[in-house]
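haha ok so turns out i had the wrong file open the whole time. this is the CORRECT one, sorry everyone. sequence first:
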Amino acid sequence: MKEVREEILRLENVKFTYDKKKMAIDDISLSLYSGEKVAIIGENGSGKSSLFLVSNMINKISSGNIYLKNKKLSNKRSEINKLREVVGIVFQNPNDQIIASNVYEEISFGPMNLDLSLDEVKNRVEKSMETLGILDYRDRATQYLSGGEQKKVTIASILSMNPEIILFDEPMASLDMKSSRELEESLNNLSDKNIALLVSTHDINFVWRWSQRVILMDRGKIIIDCNTEDFFEKEEMLSKYSIDMPILYSVGKKLNMNPLPKTIEEIL
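then structure:
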């Protein structure tokens, strides 16, 4: 039986302009569902980051509608706050997000503002740290963490809010190979918890290996939105947008493999 996923967030005909002139998001309609793994690609300036910022109303849309679990949202502070509990963002640069000097304080900051009991805050923080494998970071100073360690802390701080969707703005940027592998493992752990993940990236091999669905953006518009296998079948169209084929996809095609391999182990 095909798994039925719940629609968490829906954007309908959303537009967003900078300075009332530059169209950053141009008539986008998009739904995100529980537990899905979505990659979003496109050149710098294509609108990926702008899409994230309107998706939890950091930037207010110029026109269109946003729905949270089928409820149309207004600009009321209470509705925006609820949206931001459900939809979290992990920014590309952890320094844009980390505000506390201590790891535990950083991760507990969000829950402390939700009028929760101290026991519930502690429970959320420890569960988040355990999921990210950073229980031993608890008392460390955030300023002395490596880039990969900071990234894990920012993810844990979002996770402590019990989100149903997390948006990642180029999470692998500036990370070494080891940190990138650890982060990918963290993404898989989050997906196992039925959290929807939308990840912007330039790593096409990661897209093929990890995602279930791919969105291609250009000039503020969604050009393609489909499952990963169908996405890479559109080779002629993708070439127009300078999208390379993943290495394992190309190897699998040459070897006439079915299904096409997502990992090296599937070739050996």
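The chain has ten helices and ten strands.
again sry for the mixup
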